Amino acid sequence: MLADLIDHTLLKPEATAADVQALIDEAEELGTYSVCVSPSMLPLTLPDDLKLAVVAGFPSGKHHSSIKAAEAALAVAQGADEVDMVIDVGAAVAGEYEAVGADIAAVRAAVPDAVLKVIIESAALSDEAIVAVCEAAVAEGADFVKTSTGFHPAGGASVHAVELMAKTVAGRAGVKASGGIRDRATADAMVAAGATRLGVSGSRAVLAGETSTGY
């Protein structure tokens, strides 16, 4: 069931506590795997069968590793089950893959028991960089590699990127497609390409076979 793969997402900067509660209620109704929110919205009360994902270093990734690690640790202390961290995309573009790995390692060490997803901003990277960053993420113990924040001007998930990421991690980590999944056909294409989780803001429309205006 597609809903079982969805992180029902609300990361708009103008989101209010009421908006997040509506997100939680909708996620419960739709049967999504989790909700994904900004860290300032915690703590939250969720149904027992709904996971809580929180972003760190979002959306630019241009935070010191110690800040990302502290943000992730606080989120987990406040109830987060999963952390979606953003790498330093510029470091990846420059081929500084050891620095990318060290950034991931800092967050992994801060939240050893949480599910860690590493957002690589695939639309901004070459195929070579996508492969190298995915290898770094796996080496540092990430549970997922994730295509996109959904906020980068280069774009969101693509079938090509998901296929490449899935081939690279080869079952050693999950693959989350996020950014621009606004209809069922796109969601299904991402799953067929190898995505094992989807980040979707317009989940109701996607699951109903309609087109979402979400990100």
TrEMBL record:
Family annotation (CDD domains): DeoC
This enzyme's EC code(s): 4.1.2.4
UniProtKB keywords: Cytoplasm, Lyase, Schiff base
Subcellular location, record wording: Cytoplasm
Single GO MF annotation: deoxyribose-phosphate aldolase activity
Main location: cytoplasm
SUPFAM superfamilies: Aldolase
GO cellular component, one term: cytoplasm
Reactions catalysed according to its record: 2-deoxy-D-ribose 5-phosphate = D-glyceraldehyde 3-phosphate + acetaldehyde
Entry annotated with the keyword Magnesium: no
Pathway: Carbohydrate degradation; 2-deoxy-D-ribose 1-phosphate degradation; D-glyceraldehyde 3-phosphate and acetaldehyde from 2-deoxy-alpha-D-ribose 1-phosphate: step 2/2
Active site: D84, K146, K176
Biological process (GO), any one: 2-deoxyribose 1-phosphate catabolic process
Function: Catalyzes a reversible aldol reaction between acetaldehyde and D-glyceraldehyde 3-phosphate to generate 2-deoxy-D-ribose 5-phosphate.
UniProt-listed PANTHER family: DEOXYRIBOSE-PHOSPHATE ALDOLASE (PTHR10889:SF1)
Family, per entry: Belongs to the DeoC/FbaB aldolase family. DeoC type 1 subfamily.
Record-given protein name: Deoxyribose-phosphate aldolase
Organism listed in the record: Branchiibius hedensis
